[in-house]
Each structure stands twice: as structure tokens, then as C-alpha cells.
Amino acid sequence: MLRMSRAVVAGLGALHILFPAYPCPPFLEIFTPIHEYDEVLNFLRYCEHLTPARPPTMPGNRGVRRVAYLTKGSSAVFVIEASVDFATYSLPSEWNSTLANYIGVYEYQSAYPDLTAAGRALV
Questions:
Q1: Into how many domains does the chain fold?
Q2: Which of 46, 87, 101, 121 could staple 116 via S-S, CB 3.0–4.6 A?
Q3: Does residue 123 belong to any structural domain of this protein?
Q4: Is 9 exposed, middle or buried (CB count within 10 Å of its CB: 0-12, 13-18, 19+)?
């Protein structure tokens, strides 16, 4: 699903995958390019059996077009559609920073260099 939709897992979920010692978050964030949002929602609803918990919202963020929130038991997933054809476009606009953690099918990015992750970086 990530490959076909060019979506990425980002935020705390990506941080947990990159650094397994980091606590598992109570939700997962999937960022999609514009026009791939519905494909990801349909996959999550009909293949993974997640249920929309609230209506999709538009947070007023210029990098984000739509947001959906789905649940299954105690698991939750946010699906965030970028306002352009790049899934990672809305990542910096969410935090007003260019630092982001994300994992795609063919690439990943960690906002934390090795020394910072090891707790040895200087501030």
C-alpha cells in the first residue's frame, strides 16, 4: 500500500521504527500525496478493517488538504493528505520545522543524528 500510493509513515510511529527503544505511540500517522488519500483510506477500511472514528477534518494548515482518523480496537491511524503531489510536503508544515522522521518504501529520514540518538550530542 505504501509503495503504490507513495505514502510514508511519519511522526512518532516512524520514530519508534527507527529507534525501537522509543515507546510505541498510541497512533500511527500516514502521509499521502494529493489524490492518493482515498486509496489509502480504502485499503485501511476494507483490507485492514479500520473504522472512521470522526469525520475527516481540514486543520487549516496550508500543507495539509485533508485528515482522517480511523480506529480498530485500541489502535488508531491518522491519514494526512498533502496539498501537493509529495507525501512529505506536509511534514514540515505540521511542526513548523524542516526536521521530520518518516519512513517510505525506498527511503527514510531521521531528524536525530547518531550522536543525538545516543544521548551524546552537545546543545
A1: 1
A2: 121
A3: no
A4: buried
